[in-house]
Amino acid sequence: MYRYLFVFMGLLIFSFSNAQSKIPKKRKYGFTPKLVTGPYLQMPTSNSMTIRWRTADRDVSFVRYGKDENHLDQLAGNSSRTSEHIVNLTGLEPGTQYYYLIEGVRDTLKWDSDTRFQTLPLFRKKEKVAVGLFGDAGNNSDNQRKVRDAFKAYTQDRNLNALIMLGDNAYSFGTDAEYQQNFFDIYQDQFLKNTPVFAIPGNHDYHDYVTFAEHAQQSGLLAYFDRFTMPTKGELGGVASHTQSFYAFDLGNAHFIALDSYGLEDFKGTRVFDLDGRQAKWLIKDLEANKTKKWKIVLIHHPPYSMGSHNSDTEAQLIKIRENLTPIFEKYGVDVVFSGHSHDYERSKLMKGHTGNNASFHQGYFISQSSAKDNGTPNSAPYDKRKSNDGTVYVVAGSSGALDHQQKTYPHNAMPFSTNELGGAALLEIEDSRLEMKWINSEGKVWDNFVIIK
What we know:
Blueprint: H1 2-20, E1 35-42, E2 49-66, E3 74-89, E4 97-103, E5 108-110, E6 116-118, E7 128-134, H2 142-155, E8 162-165, H3 176-192, E9 197-199, H4 213-219, H5 223-227, E10 247-251, E11 254-258, H6 278-289, E12 295-299, H7 316-331, E13 336-339, E14 345-347, E15 383-384, E16 393-397, E17 417-419, E18 424-431, E19 434-441, E20 446-453
Parallel strand pairs: 7-8, 8-9, 11-12, 12-13, 13-16, 15-20
Antiparallel strand pairs: 1-2, 2-3, 2-4, 4-5, 4-6, 7-18, 10-11, 14-16, 14-17, 18-19, 19-20
Helix pairs in contact: 2-3
């Protein structure tokens, strides 16, 4: 009996010492399922992080992690067998870098010195937040890879708090295989294993087929809903939406509202631009509840103003979003609206009140005539919202992968800073009372930027 007790104690000591090591020793027996996707990060807070991955076969889900890459002394997970692994790490320290590895029942599935993440800082108005925004990215093109590499090189010395995908994340039909090939395989090692990702759906994520979003979630029809974990209960800030279709979250002193501009909200057939619909009512409720937040950012795939590959004068969705939603954005002091859908870059000045077509737009709708580049050149002063919170900047950042034609009336009169010569992605940096967006093109250059102060 004592002999068995000593053996048992020895096994415990071996297991504990193995948990302390930098890389757990590979075992030479048993079956190790193939790692297909991940790891990738979701749901960041100041004291938690969700880690997801996929294996080819069912396996257990465990994450070893710690603040020292040579000392991964904490363990989280469960022994339930699945191929879709979701592990939530809790009790973490704010603003702290953690290293981690993922493992199954017999072996380490993924580990290297860059498999790490940083928790969000505690909410303090002076803490800096940096976010990357990619639109219409997932078409597996040379442009997608050039934009990825240029953005990675430009931001390598920055701590990106999140990556936001602005819809059409996997062309052409948003299938599971397309998400794997055109999204995860391309961004995995460069961003996803150490930068939390948020996403909104576009028309291609819906297979270009208008369907009831809840049905799409429950039936597994759309890979978008299966591949991402969204904060549906208000756990990251904002009003609970109780749906993966649209949601809100906070990063520092910025409040983000992620909308679904394509799917049907229920069997009544309402969509985001229907003011009597579920999403529009939630949008207003969330803006009311968060009107004291310093910065408010809206994410919506379909743009209210565009003369790129899509025409906001002729396409019904874009017209209705402009007519019905921009007055709501502007009433509640939304600072920036980011969109995709058009495969180019377009940016307005600080503006308010325009709901008509391109021809009806005139300079009087601009609250400021400045470029807001804040670079010392003439007429480049930041947009100043210290005395009044009026005005919104509209940005179309839809060339992170797809890049093609423009309308004959390009650029839109409301979007004087526009180009479709090179693709790019947006870098949003917010620190206390200063917001700056930089559009980084595929050559790694800042082609456009603007600054807002409050």
